[in-house]
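Lab notebook: predicted structure, single chain.

Context: the supervisor wants predicted structures on file for every construct in the current expression panel, including those that have not yet been purified. This is the next one on the list. No modifications to the sequence; it matches the entry in the shared construct table.
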Amino acid sequence: GSTLSSACGSVCDSFEPCLTYNVSESTSCNSCKADADGVCNYVCYNIYRKDPTDRSRFVFFLTFGDYQSEEELAARAKDSTYDASVEGLPDNTSTYAWASNNIVTRIDPLDLPLATILAGGSNVDYSIKAKVASVDLAPDLLTSQTQVTQVLLMSMNLKAQVTAVRDLLPYTVTYVNLANTLLHTFPTDLLSLPSLTWLYVTVVVEPKHPSQSKTWLTLLFFWSMRRYLNLNYITSVNSSVGSTTITQL
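Prediction complete. Output recorded below exactly as produced.
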């Protein structure tokens, strides 16, 4: 697979991430730009597709490829309409930059504006539980980007990376959204981020009695995000978990 990064040999514009290829591997790439030495070709991604544009946020989609999580396989086995639901998701790739998850398997440090959205699929408004992209995130993905205050990492498999998420974020981040990221445990490390005031994850609270229904505990950024309820697999949170900076429940 290839790596998405901002190390683009000075051939891409500000806030344009790129994929890098050896020249010999990209002779058929019509959109490639060669570096000064002619060794590497870069595919630059314009994150501002339409005017008027909101240049205060970075949006990049990893459209779904061949990867299927074990949770997705289980969900499909239980629901005959699962694939139709996935196919019915909105497609915003004409508005924002995107690359197939079959190509991009890692994201290295990026130069970003105030808000950052990295999402599997082709939109940020709707998700199908367990349908995610698979990508490795660099441990210093956003660490130096102190101008970034909002981060959305959505519809990607963070199950094995959740303990590293805190350290790849800037200390200035105030809002984090981890919707549909296959989390099975509450990411308590994030609560130590000094500026964090909004954390969006979903906790499914199993009923203690058959007469009771499931409830959901969700920290919300704005009300319309209620549509994301039940997009992770967290079933309990230790009673000692708490934060003096989180302001909305």
